[in-house]
Write a structure and sequence with these properties.
The protein is an alpha+beta fold and 588 residues long. The protein folds into 2 domains: 345 residues, no CATH class; 134 residues, no CATH class. The strands form 7 sheets. A 6-stranded antiparallel β-sheet has the order 14-1-2-18-19-20. Strands 10-11-12-13-15 form a 5-stranded antiparallel β-sheet, covered by helices on one side. Strands 3-8-9 form a 3-stranded antiparallel β-sheet, covered by helices on one side. Helix 2 crosses helix 3. The longest helix has 36 residues. The chain is globular, with a radius of gyration of 25 Å.
Length: 588
């Protein structure tokens, strides 16, 4: 009876958690302070950036945690193409925050419904690339990571007048850019000429190639702009991350003071400063240097004063430079643009960082009663509301609503098809698995192209990882150990195999580039399919192992009760006013 009461109490608590979680209202904005501390929006993303001299192997790295929770997760490969003179390229609107029902066709099969009516001159040759919600890497190892940063509310332009949104900008960059710098210029020019916005507000992109990486930020300029105005339809700025530095973008503008005379480190639209002056966001008479983020995306929040909802910025610097002892009290806008890490980072270090949940700090969401008896860090991802008051909870890097997560590597010592790598993990990074995709592959697994949030589909790769994730949540601290064992098996073997794969592919490439591409395609698709099968099997095992809130020992064919921690049982006794059973009197 006691065990049953504990289980009933657990179920009730879980229901309360889920009710509060789904009842949390969306973020509210103000015009003078960027966004509320709760979060910029429910579907924000984290980007981590590593310069070539800050990495262990000399690769440039970027990440994208595609933290949406209701967006499209499907991927596709777009092959390179040649185009006849005079050909036009149609421009489409892509709402990154929507998913179409599968019966209406895959997202990338129905994109023409977003036709803007704009056609621009087509490039004679467009490069092949891989993309999901955004473009991620093209034939030249130009790679992208994305993070929504927002802007002043008066700058938003939700009318269809702007012809470019962030998705379309990244696809054009993938088709045309030879370098990261060129990608900055292409997207900057298109956004100012044809307008930027519609479904998107301020956005940040990490743009990398085998030699360098830039932070590019683009913002709309208000709902009154039209193409006929003759004025720039966006305002943008870009800053290069030093080669020996690392940086981060957790949905906050990262570019501060700019010096456009340093052309090797800064680029911007012609209206970057003048628009701020015109709108009253910057006063040149103040004699203060122009500060991009303070003008366009001011924030007065820190990890501490936001109760952890803005903890990601501080946490990143705490991880890469712990001896600096950055204070959680430091305003995020006062933290550095980039920093030299205390040790060079490997791709696995970056993967682990994408899984960080502020362990060992007071911002760990699994801490205490919030995590429940089994330390689940995924409760209250948006905070909660009680008696009309809002309470923030930590918004960590490894939040539990990612559509997928990417870690890109660009490597200058190898030909582009071999040098470029995308490590892709579908779903929440704590329960999924990173799979390598070489830039040179010419197709992706069919299971990458299917699925949505509302229809369970065993043909979809993403559902294999969600299947495991679902069965991990109830007894998180126990089940996550099973997941980590499988992650270690598949990720470690994949990481260790890369040097041999590089070497063999390079040998083939020198003789026949097409043969090298075929080899990489076969390996990547085969490996991904094996990982997906392994996750389906793990999901089945977890379903059996923790069925009915018991522990079914599969090997010994025994059923055992799950032991709850003493601190939680003590609280249960106090809260429910439980009394111990009377001791039985000993018989004479």
């Amino acid at each position: 009876m006691k065990v049953k009461k504990v289980l009933i109490f657990t179920t009730i608590l879980l229901g309360v958690f889920l009710f509060n979680q789904t009842s949390m209202p969306g973020a509210e904005k103000c015009d003078d302070c960027g966004t509320t501390p709760a979060e910029i929006r429910a579907d924000a993303c984290t980007v981590i950036i590593v310069g070539k001299k800050a990495s262990v192997d000399g690769s440039v790295m970027t990440t994208h945690t595609c933290d949406c929770g209701l967006c499209d997760w499907t991927w596709r490969y777009v092959p390179p193409a040649d185009h006849k003179p005079g050909t036009k390229r149609k421009i489409y609107h892509f709402n990154q925050f929507t998913t179409k029902p599968p019966e209406k066709g895959l997202r990338w099969d129905t994109f023409e419904t977003g036709d803007t009516g704009l056609e621009i001159p087509q490039a004679p040759h467009t490069y092949g690339y891989l993309h999901g919600m955004f473009g991620y890497m093209n034939d030249n190892q130009v790679a992208i990571g994305e993070s929504t940063i927002g802007c002043r509310k008066k700058m938003e332009n939700t009318t269809p007048a702007p012809k470019f949104d962030i998705t379309m900008l990244t696809l054009i960059a993938m088709e045309r850019a030879k370098t990261a710098r060129e990608a900055v210029k292409i997207m900057g020019d298109l956004s100012t000429e044809y307008g930027y916005g519609f479904t998107d507000s301020g956005e940040m992109l990490a743009l990398s190639d085998p030699n360098e990486v830039w932070i590019f930020e683009v913002l709309p300029i208000g709902p009154l702009w039209t193409p006929e105005s003759g004025k720039p339809g966006a305002v943008w700025c870009a800053q290069r991350v030093p080669d020996n530095h690392v940086s981060v973008c957790p949905n906050e503008s990262r570019i501060g003071e700019i010096n456009l005379k340093k052309k090797d480190y800064f680029m911007a639209s012609e209206n970057a400063i003048s628009y701020a002056v015109k709108k009253g966001y910057y006063d040149p008479k103040s004699k203060k240097p122009f500060n991009w983020k303070k003008a366009y995306n001011p924030s007065k929040y820190s990890a501490a004063n936001s109760a952890g909802s803005r903890v990601r910025m501080w946490r990143f610097f705490d991880l890469v430079a712990p001896s600096k002892k950055f204070s959680p009290e430091t305003l995020n806008q006062d933290l550095p643009f980039s920093i030299k890490p205390e040790k060079k980072l490997s791709v696995y270090d970056v993967i682990k960082m994408t899984r960080d949940k502020c362990e060992g700090t007071k911002y760990n969401p699994a801490r205490g009663f919030q995590g429940g008896p089994f330390g689940n860090p995924n409760r209250f991802p948006y905070g909660f509301k009680y008696e009309g008051k809002k309470y923030n909870t930590p918004r960590i890097i490894a939040v539990n609503r990612a559509e997928y997560v990417t870690v890109t590597q660009t490597r200058d010592w190898l030909p582009n098809p071999i040098g470029g790598l995308i490590w892709l993990a579908f779903g929440s990074q704590d329960t999924s698995c990173y799979m390598p995709l070489y830039q040179g592959i010419t197709k992706i697994p069919e299971s990458f192209k299917f699925g949505d949030h509302w229809t369970f589909d065993r043909k979809s790769a993403r559902w294999a990882f969600d299947y495991v994730d679902y069965h991990t949540q109830v007894y998180y601290s126990l089940a996550i150990e099973e997941v980590r064992k499988l992650q270690q098996k598949w990720e470690e073997s994949a990481l260790k195999s890369i040097p041999a794969l590089d070497k063999h592919a390079l040998g083939l490439y020198k003789k026949d580039p097409a043969a090298a591409r075929a080899y990489l395609t076969e390996h990547c698709t085969g490996h991904a399919n094996l990982v997906i099968d392994a996750w389906w099997e793990l999901g089945d095992r977890l379903l059996v192992q923790y069925n009915k809130l018991w522990y079914y020992n599969i090997e010994e064919r025994k059923r055992e009760a799950i032991k709850y921690p003493d601190w939680w049982l003590k609280e249960l006794i106090r809260y429910n006013g439980l009394k111990p059973q009377p001791e039985e009197k000993k018989k004479d």
